[in-house]
Every structure is written in C-alpha cells, then in structure tokens.
Specification:
Mean pLDDT: 91
Largest sheet: none
Strand content: under 5%
Distance between the termini: 46 Å
Helix content: 55-70%
Radius of gyration: 26 Å
Shape: elongated
Order of helices and strands: HHHH
Number of strands: 0
Length: 90
C-alpha cells in the first residue's frame, strides 16, 4: 500500500486496547483495522446522506412537476435573452 497522507489520532483510555484486540482477531495491524473501519463508516454515512427520501405525497408532486411542460416566467425569459446576447450561460 502506498502511503500518500498521514493522519494522527488521539484515543481515549481503553480505545487503543479495543482496536488492538479487534485487529489481532482478524490478523491485521491496528492502523489497517482503524482505516478499514473508518472507510466503511464514511461510505455508509455518505450513501445515507446522498439519498433523497420523499414521502408518497412529495413523490407524487415531483412526478407531476416533471411530467408537466415548464413555461419560463418573464424574469427567466429576460435572463435567457440577456445571456444569448452576451454569449454567457444563464
């Protein structure tokens, strides 16, 4: 494994022993055990946070909004017109 960054961590009493014991049971180093556990927890957390949960009512409203044709209001039409004249994206 190529090490590209270093991360120091202060542990509370008893944590080091806990991590060492768990790492020994799966025949790995404490650093590898903590790194794998942290990576697994981070991925699970990010997956949960990136998921959008909608109630049935909200899902229905979103579905209706996506199915209906969108008509830009006057303000949006003005911005689009200005953007086209200047060549900049709105």
């Amino acid at each position: 494994m190529e090490i590209s960054a270093r991360f120091d961590l202060r542990l509370e009493g008893g944590e080091k022993g806990l991590f060492l014991e768990a790492a020994a049971l799966i025949v790995t180093t404490m650093a590898d055990f903590v790194r794998a556990a942290a990576k697994e927890k981070a991925r699970a957390f990010l997956e949960q946070e990136r998921r959008i949960l909608l109630s049935p009512r909200d899902l229905s409203a979103l579905s209706v909004a996506l199915d209906n044709t969108f008509e830009p209001n006057q303000a949006l039409r003005a911005v689009i017109k200005r953007a086209r004249k200047t060549g900049r994206r709105a």
